[in-house]
């Protein structure tokens, strides 16, 4: 369950990016997870539920965008989507391939329920 | 964390549903903190020209026995240190004591892999200036340690014959990150119905970049090749302390 450590790192990142007074306004976190990232999306979801339980945004949703693997053959430069974790080039049969995408593990964005929530003070538009 | 504000606060108002939302665009790796810490470790190791090797395998494949033997056999040639990770107990560290090397245990508690920050903290107990080679014995696990860079130069995955020859296909990520695969317990290969040709083929399919050395720690088979590998990379490290490639492939 290294997904737990990764989710802890994610939530730490969130707490650094969202001002304290807006943290309960988080509606969703979007992650980008590559199919060859070595991470199981369901396990990330489980870790998120367990960790977010204690947080002001415990009802926030975790959205995960899966990124399929794409490789570039190091011999003939053919670009392909491998069928398994054996990155065999369908063009020339070479096994040495550079992974172009599919290893991503990123916090893409944080969605808040008020556009004003990043202002320095917790004041709503109407009051301004 | 040192994120640039411009990078972060690209507002995206959407009021279609009558409710305004804002999107903070982040685009930051979840491994950022670990990668930064690993980078610092790597810089430190490079400055001191220490070759650093991360040993990975499933539990019971022989990481600690291999180190016990290696520390004894190479102690007259190079100065070695070991960082040993385990969930509980310092039993492995105790096994490695009094073999002419500095040994420090990391007890991770419930964490199933080592992280760069844990290694960093543990180093205060080792005298890095008196080391040529540092082994990091990771927590026995073929899944979780794969994505955590520890500032190492090389990754070595140990596969033992009793585990079966299909391990590389079942756990491709860890093998894909290996520079060298040691196939241990060769003395038990026949008893375990281990097919060496199939094992090598499987490793080559998922990890064509990895070199393979068959060994038996118990019988001393293949250890000369393993020592030669270590000493060759130790010489290279002395000559070229900065290993940019190691970081490029792990981040």
Kindly report the average pLDDT value of chain A.
90
Please provide the count of β strands of chain B. 8
Q: What's the β-strand tally of chain A?
A: 6
* Strand line-up across the major sheet of chain B: 4-3-5-2-6-7-8
Major sheet summary line of chain A: 3 strands, mixed
Kindly report how far apart the N and C termini of chain A lie.
47 Å
Low-confidence blocks of residues of chain B: 1-17
This entry's quaternary arrangement is heterodimer
How many distinct helices of chain A?
2
Q: What's the helical proportion of residues of chain B? A: 25-40%
Kindly estimate the percentage of residues of chain A that lie in beta strands according to DSSP. 25-35%
How much of the sequence lies in strands of chain B comes to 15-25%
Give a description of the structure:
The complex is a heterodimer of chains A (128) and B (251). By secondary structure, chain A is an alpha+beta fold. Chain A is 22% helix and 27% strand. Chain A has helices at 2-17, 41-52; strands at residues 26-34, 61-67, 70-73, 79-80, 97-101, 105-112. In chain A, the strands form two sheets. A three-stranded mixed sheet of chain A has the order 2-1-6, covered by helices on one side. Chain A has a three-stranded antiparallel sheet with strand order 4-3-5, with no helix packed on it. In chain A, strand 3 and strand 4 (79-80) form a beta hairpin. In chain A, helix 1 packs across helix 2. Chain B is an alpha/beta fold and 251 residues long. Helix content of chain B is 35%, strand content 20%. Chain B has helices spanning 5-8, 32-47, 63-74, 91-96, 116-122, 167-170, 172-176, 196-206, 223-239, 244-250, and strands spanning 22-29, 51-57, 80-86, 102-107, 133-137, 154-160, 180-184, 211-214. The longest helix of chain B is centred in the C-terminal third of the chain and has 17 residues, at 223-239. The chains are: A alpha+beta (128), B alpha/beta (251). The interface between A and B is large, with 36 and 42 residues. Strand 6 (105-112) of chain A pairs antiparallel with strand 1 (22-29) of chain B, so a sheet runs across the interface.
